[in-house]
Sequence to fold (291 residues):
Amino acid sequence: MRLNGKVAVITGGAGGMGRSTVLRFLAEGAKVLIADFNADQGAQTMAMAADAGYAENCRFIKTDVADETHVKAMFECAADNFSRVDIVFNNAGVGGVIGPIWDVEESEWDYTFDVLAKGVFFGIKHGARALRAHGTGGAIINTASVAGLSGGCGPLVYSAAKAAVVNMTKGASVQLSADRIRVNCVCPGFILTGLTQSPKRTPEEAAKHMDGMQPWPDHGTGDDIAGTVVFLASDDAKFITGESIVVDGGLTAIGPDLWQRFGQPYEATMTKNRLTKGTTGERNTVRDVKD
Fold:
């Protein structure tokens, strides 16, 4: 088992890529603190872990990653239950605001950046403190996105936040190298999770909607991300830091034009502005674009 005896904190761990990673980490011998805003999904993930025989090796804490007091409490919970922290996976995310840049409200920008960028900052900040405390190094992995690597590969504000995560990863890797703390990020392409599925579509319909999005014939799943994160967290990656690992089935290799591929209007031509809140359990909002 590649993570035997390690203790991991995983944000956004109650669903999607996070849930897949939680279950994979447990199978690899790790103890895991699941942190998520959605307590109902957290309970479901805990039940799944218990059914697999890992009840003693995981805990759940409701966490708003955009609130520093919550992030501090998250690491305190990990220390109280498992004595230490070796791995941090800053994975919590939302779709955020989608619409023309001239119509984006400050509050919508702030919500998107608070979760996607500031949440990662808090995770690195307090994760570094937890890892430095026991003095034996460790690994921090952040969820970025192919959207943060180029223009036109996702909503503008979401893409900007994910680009911040990519750069933050590089900077943190330099600062924390002396402590043997590796900092990397994973950049998923289109992965079949609750964040990419419309509430109006079944999982099968969502999969069909994503057919042909990338050269690789199979759809990406949470397990594909989990396998990459396990590698980055393990000693197999002991000389890898400051990297952005793309997991996208060749999407960026072929060159993304996702609005066209989805058959949707480009943001600049949208008549509706949506603020999506992912799997937080909170309702998305839709409003008319103002001229």
